[in-house]
Amino acid sequence: MATFEATRNMRVQRHFEVFEIDMPVITGACTIGSAQGFGTPLTCDQAWTGEYKTYYFTNENAPILPSINGEPIWRCIKSIKETATELKPGRGLSGRGSLNITFTDFTGQDPNPYAPAVDDVVKQQGTYFGKYDARQIFENRQSRLKLYRVEEDGSIDLVNGAETRSYISNALKLNSSSGDWTVECKDVLSVANLNEKSWPIATGGFLRLDVDDTVTAIPVDDFTDYSSAIVVRIGEEFLKVVSVTDNLTATAVLNVSTRGVPIDGPVSGVRITSTIRDEHDAGDEVFICSLSDDETIDELITKILVDSDVDISLIPAAEWAAEVQEWHATDKINTLHSESESVNDVLNRVLTGFLMDLWFSTTENKIKLSAISVWKESSAALIEGKEINSYTLKKNPEDSLRASRALVLYDKQFLSANDDVESYKRASQFSDPQLATPQFFGKHKDKQFDNNFLLNEESANLLTQRYVSRFKFTPYIRPWTTEERFLTFKTGDVIDISAESEQSFDGLASDNLRAQITKINPKYTNSGRYYDVTAMTYEPAFNTGTEIILTSTLTSINLFTLAGAPSQDVEIVYILDGGRSQGNVSIRAGAFTAGSKIIIIMVNGFDGQASGGNGGRGESILWDQESGSIIVTGPPQNGQNGGTVYDAQGIDTDIYFSGATPSTSYPIANGFMRAPSGGDGGFSYTGINPNFVSGDGGNGGDGRLPGSGGNPGDAEGSRASQGVAGTNGEVDGTGTGWGNAGTNNGASGGAAGSGILDSGATTVNLFADGDLATRYINGNGNH
After folding, report:
1. Which residues pair with 483 in a beta bridge?
2. Splitting the chain (783 residues) into consecutive groups of 10 residues, what average pLDDT does each group show?
3. 313: helix, coil or strand?
């Protein structure tokens, strides 16, 4: 006997299938009133004790098969039609799979032959499937289609020799014209059922009494369990629950924090939402919010599915966590889920917001979660004429997905506000400007994502970058046919295609098509099985030489995110084309793996700067009448440090300021990096009573953005002057100039900013054509 995999390579194959379905039965006493029953919960007054019976059916032309555990395998399958699940990269949930098995009905047998009421007369009455339908409910029953091969010696291993495809039955239907019966089965994820279920589940809670906008003891109903409530929503106001008094009683009260105060995550400390206090009336809904507090993507999806009746045993927790850790290591979700929505909408928001695929694998009997990224490495190479049947490979453009520029709005500060544009405060946009030039597409094609309150700055930037990287060139749908013996890949796999019918630039056959398998659909015929396969091709990111062009103002950018967060060692070239940088750390390498390398080429006068340090506050004083002396109520404060232009964060980096570069597209560098300056310290007070003056604020340091001048100190007498703001990083270096420490006054000046910090990098090399001193100002950097 051999397993299914062991017989895969047989050149001559005989295929057949066995369909199994588990139905509830009652094997003990079974009566309906005073009459004998038929052995199922619908036909017995006795309580069901959890017993199931597996029924077996096979093809009409299958080999003669032995019984399994004493149960016959009925040779009555007339046809099989399966529509496999289909991934929809970039568009959220996968398409649901389905399975329809059509049976030829027969007589002289009974589905419950050992039931008390079933005798020889009953067995001869009616038809098998007619009686089966009358006695059972066919919705949500565990079902399996087992795919077998007859071994070369004619033997069959019914226990180990099959590939199992798992489904849930939906209905048993009669075709009255032919007398055939069809079992309709559905994808296991359909249990969550999308538009038929909502999440979070509303509990029906309400206010017992009117409340004003200040009371913190909120009277609530007596049948809702509030013991696990962290935040509730009443109308458009959010209230943080501190404790519950008299839960599930007629005097139940929610004790909440001060009304109208913003709500922060208790674990993350992140601002979850702002809110406005309001009056509420008796009978108003009290909605228990579901809190995501530093929650990972896999944790949130698991919570949604389990609450929607998906069996947790179908969720491979460790596998999901590893996928999220590899591709979304820094992404955490901090929000409130504050109204019931369809599960379909909730899952789509998560999957499209983080570019993930979610589907049920019928062959593995588990729900799969996979990130969408051009950095995914292939797991197999498919060759036309072998894994791909000759002359079956086609090429269909999917231009609806193409985008050279992507935009998403995020940061919804008031979660109870509507979802319109004005409710969101920030946006992330990523574009590939080269594709909008005349030699390519000539203009941008935009992808506008739905506004998404789940995202923060890092995840929003990663979303727009990954989408453009994956879909900036028109993706193509590639359907083909594969014989079963060559089906060595699975749905979701990333593969390379070598095809004689696909030409490369030089006219030779292409051997470099990267694609993701989106669908593998079995076809069942009288002569055996074959598979219609669909894949979506895309431009992969290669480990060496990838160029990312940045033309807009760079504000606290993360180069790792802008590369799509590759999970392996890479070498990436960043072209900083014109424009400028700003922010406290205006450019940082990010979480690249340790063996990676970054090459930065500045062109067209790129001006790399960072924020200047703020000036310190001046000294505050008052006159003490009793002692006749001046009392310092607030000493002068130190100036703040200047920011950093580039932090390598331990990643080896080459930076080109002028002269020749390794890029063929940008062969000559032309750019600057200048450290900002620290802010001056605040001044001490001057004078004596009655002509004393509080201390002046220190001046801000130069930079982009400039440091603000420090506030003057407070005083009963004359108040001093505001410090002067730093200069906004002009090229002539006026004001405090670049890379200088702030001046010490009554308090210390801030440290000079840094041009470049290695932060543990082994090598950070600066390249210039003899003019580095005019292009780079180090400050407190490492160079």
Report:
1. 530
2. 84 95 97 96 96 97 94 97 95 91 97 96 97 96 96 91 96 94 93 76 95 97 96 98 97 97 96 97 97 98 94 96 94 96 93 96 96 86 93 94 95 95 94 84 93 95 92 93 95 90 74 88 95 90 74 88 87 92 94 94 96 91 80 91 97 97 94 94 84 85 88 70 54 68 94 96 96 94 92
3. helix
Burial 468-489 (b: 16+ CB within 10 A, else e): bbbbbbbbbbbbbebebbbbeb
Secondary element (H or E) of residue 410: strand 405-412
- The packing angle between helices 317-327 and 297-307, to 10°, is 140
First-residue to last-residue Cα distance in the chain: 70
Tokens linked to 76: 């009555």
Name beta bridge partners: 592. Answer: none
The CATH architecture that domain 380-398+475-538 belongs to is Beta Barrel (2.40)
Q: Return the SS3 of 69.
A: coil
| Nearest 10 degrees: Cα torsion 480, 481, 486, 492 | 50
Strand partners, 298: none
How far is the C-alpha of 56 from the C-alpha of 764, rounded, in Å? 68
Question: CA Rg, the chain, in Å?
Answer: 35
CA distance 10 to 675: 69
CA distance 727 to 705: 8
Which two tokens mark 293?
């507090």
Measured CA distances, 174 to 111, 133, 367 (Å) = 17, 9, 32
With tokens 């998906």, the residue in question is: 310
Range list of β-strands (E), 84-157: 98-103, 142-150
Sign of dihedral through CA atoms 577, 578, 579, 583?
positive
Tell me if 447 sits within 8 A of 341, measured CB to CB: no
Distance from C-alpha of 94 to C-alpha of 96, rounded to nearest angstrom: 6
Burial category of 198 from C-beta neighbours within 10 Å (exposed 0-12, middle 13-18, buried 19 and up): middle
Q: What's the burial of 406, exposed, middle or buried (CB within 10 Å: 0-12/13-18/19+)?
A: buried
In whole angstroms, what is the distance from residue 459 CA to residue 449 CA?
13
Helices in 56-196 by DSSP H: which ranges?
120-124, 128-135
625-628 long-range CB contacts below 8 Å, 24 or more apart?
Answer: 628/689
| Cβ(477)–Cβ(536) below 8 Å | yes
Six token digits for residue 120: 């020889």
Rounded distance between C-alpha atoms, residue 255 and residue 86, angstroms: 48
pTM of this structure: 0.84
Q: Which among 705, 87, 604 has a CA at the least distance from the CA of 360?
A: 87
H helices then E strands: how many in the chain? Answer: 8, 46
- In the chain, CATH 2.40.30.150 covers 380-398+475-538
Rounded Cα gap, residues 560 and 587, in angstroms: 10
Q: Give the DSSP H/E element, type plus range, for residue 131.
A: helix 128-135
User: In terms of DSSP H, where are the helices of 256-329?
Assistant: 297-307, 317-327
Specify the pairing of strand 380-383 against strand 494-503: parallel
CA–CA dist 448, 426 (Å, integer):
14
- Residues in Cβ contact with 295 at an 8 Å cutoff, skipping those fewer than 6 apart: 332, 333, 334
State residue 772 phi and psi, 5-degree precision.
Answer: -60, -35
The sign of the CA dihedral 363, 369, 374, 376 is: negative
User: C-alpha distances in angstroms, 232 versus 226, 356, 404, 444, 528?
Assistant: 9, 30, 41, 44, 58
Number of Cβ within 10 Å of residue 82's Cβ equals: 18
